[in-house]
Write a structure and sequence with these properties.
Length: 212
């Protein structure tokens, strides 16, 4: 057989294979997104979204997730303003939680207050600085903000999480959790009024949506 013809035949089949594989990937990805979207909307029905975060203590057994034992402590849902986003890729925490959201609700969603506020994050903490012009007490500011360690429950939710930016308003729902692996332990705060070490929420997220 002519060498040129043979080369053309090989190139044709290679191109055809690439097209078929790309189409198969597109269909699989489309189906996964559709399934993820349906699950997300179904999960929304489990949660309440008011002016302040909703929390309900629960008693549930541990589940195994990515090699970690996760025990749900409380059901949690909220409508929040995203004040900061910080990504992490080092440490055991990052194996589960690749990002922290600094968030606000109530008076800390008000742009008049936020324009006098500087938010920064690092080392799985968040830091707030504000001008004297702000007409809020320190207690009001701290009890209407939080730093949430986000644990996406699925790849679909992780995609949404990666799309969240500072300034977005989101609905989010899931469980505040206690995590164990070997001798390592990580536990969520269960109150919005604490500060310092251990005051961040660790949220195992099964619902999230950008609403603004």
């Amino acid at each position: 057989m002519n060498t040129k013809i043979t080369t053309k035949i090989i190139l044709f089949f290679l191109t055809l294979t690439t097209i078929v594989m790309s189409f198969s990937f597109y269909i699989k990805n489309k189906n996964n997104n559709h399934k993820g979207s349906l699950e997300l909307e179904s999960n929304r029905e489990k949660y309440d979204f008011g002016l302040t975060p909703y929390q309900q203590q629960i008693k549930e057994g541990e589940i195994l997730f990515k090699g970690f034992n996760i025990k749900p402590l409380a059901k949690f849902s909220a409508n929040l303003k995203v004040l900061g986003v910080e990504n992490y890729n080092l440490g055991k925490e990052a194996e589960l939680s690749p990002v922290d959201f600094a968030v606000g609700w109530g008076v800390m969603k008000d742009e008049e207050n936020l324009k006098n506020m500087k938010v920064s994050q690092g080392g799985r903490w968040y830091f707030l600085k504000w001008d004297k012009e702000i007409k809020l007490s320190t207690r009001e500011i701290m009890s209407n903000t939080a730093n949430i360690h986000i644990i996406p429950k699925s790849e679909y939710i992780e995609k949404i999480v990666k799309d969240i930016e500072v300034g977005d308003e989101i609905e989010i729902g899931g469980h505040l959790v206690l995590i164990n692996k070997d001798n390592w332990r990580w536990v969520s705060s269960l109150t919005r009024t604490d500060t310092g070490a251990g005051s961040c929420e660790i949220l195992f997220v099964d619902y999230i949506k950008k609403v603004k």
